[in-house]
Task: structure prediction
Amino acid sequence: MTTQADTNLATGVNASAEARTGALIALLLGAFLVFTTGFAYSSTLHNAAHDTRHAVAFPCH
Result:
């Protein structure tokens, strides 16, 4: 027999796992974008990322 407390606990655990999964995906995507543009051979792509970092006050050199 499942009680309301058991259901709330299971829902909270699932929501927490989903939040961690979303955060991990966002972290990996962000790291990919930063490193891809940071080490890009295309000067246009690299300079666009460089100017964006300066615009948000992120130190890059």
